[in-house]
Amino acid sequence: MSAQHRTAAPRTSGSLARSRPRYGEFAVKVVLLLAALVSVLTTVGIVVALLEPTIEFFSEVGLGEFFGSTTWGPLFNPPAFGVWPIIVATLEITLIAIVVAVPLGLASAIYLSEYATPRVRKVLKPVLEVLAGVPTVVFGFFALTFVTPLLQDVFPFLGLDGKNALSAGLLVGVMIIPIVASLSEDSMAAVPNGLREGSYALGASKMITSVRVVVPAAFSGIVAAIILAVSRAAGETMIVAIAGGFKSVFTLNPANEMATMAAFIAQAGSGDASVGSTAYKTIFAVGSLLFVMTFAMNYLSARMVQKYREVYD
């Protein structure tokens, strides 16, 4: 009996230990849940802040005038509320930025993932990511005081204005290179080495393996990186305000000065419009439109990642 009692005692003690509440683990779960809710609550807060003034704006300015005109001047007298000039300017500068960032970012990612030694990668990747920490106002003044004069001297036939979409787009592209490069490199690094070894076994070179095996395998992550970079470029304010200007003109010529949606919000929100006026409510209408555009891009990114994600054992 005593032997049975001695062997049963540890099981009873273990059972009591397992049933004891773990307050520390519960606290960690609560903290992690709150951290996850921050982004959700922030998004909800943005929608709530934008919704009421936007509804009031469209009760005064019809959707037909807002989307059916190419003249934008809500701060002028008489005002004009055709939003297409700032939409086109936003898309044009974003397109220029993507043309710069995607090739350079992907090339950097392929080099870091497939060619660089661990020592070189350890040095170059942090240096590349430091570029993302440079204040955008620095990029803006660099575009205004160096890039634009340089382009005017080298390509005088372009007829660049002092402030123009081309210089702004180029520097926005440089700014988002770390987003494309870093996230794409992380996706490529997650590709199993077995795929590379199989390609090498078939006689493929490192370049062929990188372009035709690794990049397609990491396609979902690369697409997500590009769309995230597009969203970042579309919402950029300081570079486009300093180097692109505030002139709202419906044009496709990147040599001209033009105002993006973010630049207009910065201009109108600086005190030029009286609070409660239709011009002031335009800030919220444009902000809502920009929010919808970037939200759609992020949703598209999530869908692309889900559709093209490769699962490896």
From TrEMBL:
One Pfam family of this chain: BPD_transp_1
Transmembrane regions: 26-51, 82-106, 127-152, 164-183, 213-231, 279-300
Topological category with respect to the lipid bilayer: Multi-pass membrane protein
Subcellular compartments: Cell membrane; Membrane
Gene Ontology CC, one term: plasma membrane
InterPro entries: MetI-like, MetI-like_sf, Phosphate_PstC
Protein family according to the UniProt entry: Belongs to the binding-protein-dependent transport system permease family. CysTW subfamily.
Name this protein carries in UniProt: Phosphate transport system permease protein
Species of origin: Planomonospora sphaerica
